[in-house]
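Researcher: Quick test of sequence recovery. Tokens follow.
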């Protein structure tokens, strides 16, 4: 196997480095990571008491299933912030996604400090044999980190000493739709369209035909942009139901809806589009993530059909119109496509 091929092997298929295993002291928190990566790590932990933190309910459910299948007893918890967990852990282990969001990595390191006991340690297991990013970041937050490199891994660890203020990595952006009023939104790492109004969400908001008093379902709401702009058209008699599987996104949506004067709304964290009140709905807006099997798009389409009133309107934004349009047609019947800003809005 070539050196380059070895580097591309995911952490879930690598032996857990002895440097990591030696520092898996309970109570232990595993921060994010894919289900396969977390299972691989905890198998090497000799039964260390562990809590697994996730930000997304869908990912948390997959992780619970994987842990149960592997017969690993660990608790999976979700929260908008890692530091929502108590500061009681002796070890925090973070396996950052290769090529993942830079700002989320910074946010995780900052927050990991605050869930550790004094003297507890953060361990970063990086898939890079020479990691260019984390040494300076850990030095800034924890002080001088320890580092061990192998042919295919870098492991860094640093103990918590003293205290430091909590710092939120927030970006506020301002946006408007067509000639409507401008709105301000707070966004944070780990949530769709961090720091900007995504062109797909903008295209969706520009295309949807809404009327005063409409009850609107915003599926995959992110930080709430589409639903907030929808409320500008539905007015005080309308109602917006925001839903997302990312619990940080839902917390931001609640904040942004209130700050922008949405008077009647519900923000729900759900991986299955459940727990919604105020239906049936007149309009459903869907902005699903791009997943190869289109499973989330299929979920949004099917649940929208169930939650809309007869002759309710459905709008879905996508860059993959052909396969997704088939799903919409299978559920709704006739479907139209409206091109806008390099996307297609499917209307049914």
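Model:
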């Amino acid at each position: 196997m070539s050196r380059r091929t070895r580097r591309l092997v995911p952490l879930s298929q690598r032996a857990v480095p002895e440097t990591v295993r030696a520092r898996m002291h309970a109570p232990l928190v595993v921060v994010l990571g894919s289900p396969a990566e977390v299972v691989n790590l905890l198998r090497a932990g000799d039964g260390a008491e562990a809590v697994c933190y996730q930000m997304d309910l869908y990912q948390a459910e997959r992780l619970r299933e994987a842990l149960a299948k592997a017969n690993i007893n660990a608790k999976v918890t979700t929260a908008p912030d890692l530091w929502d967990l108590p500061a009681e852990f002796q070890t925090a282990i973070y396996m950052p996604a290769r090529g993942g969001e830079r700002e989320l990595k910074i946010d995780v390191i900052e927050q990991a400090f605050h869930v550790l006991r004094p003297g507890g340690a953060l361990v970063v297991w990086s898939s890079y044999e020479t990691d260019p990013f984390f040494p300076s970041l850990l030095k800034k937050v924890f002080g001088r980190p320890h580092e061990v490199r192998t042919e295919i891994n870098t492991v860094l660890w640093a103990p918590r000493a003293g205290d430091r203020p909590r710092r939120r990595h927030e970006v506020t952006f301002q946006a408007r739709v067509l000639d409507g009023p401008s709105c301000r939104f707070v966004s944070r790492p780990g949530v769709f369209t961090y720091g900007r109004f995504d062109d797909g969400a903008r295209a969706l908001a520009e295309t949807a035909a809404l009327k005063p008093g409409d009850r609107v379902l915003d599926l995959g709401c992110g930080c709430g942009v589409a639903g907030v702009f929808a409320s500008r058209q539905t007015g005080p008699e309308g109602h917006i139901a925001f839903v997302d599987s990312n619990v940080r996104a839902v917390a931001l949506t609640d904040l942004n809806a209130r700050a922008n004067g949405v008077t009647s709304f519900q923000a729900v964290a759900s991986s299955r589009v459940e727990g919604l009140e105020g239906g049936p709905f007149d309009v459903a807006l869907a902005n699903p993530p791009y997943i190869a099997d289109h499973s989330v798009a299929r979920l949004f389409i099917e649940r929208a059909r169930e939650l809309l009133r007869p002759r309710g309107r459905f709008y879905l934004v996508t860059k993959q119109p052909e396969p997704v349009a088939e799903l919409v047609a299978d559920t709704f019947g006739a479907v139209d496509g409206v091109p806008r800003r390099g996307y297609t809005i499917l209307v049914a």
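Confidence is low (pLDDT under 50) at residues 1-6.
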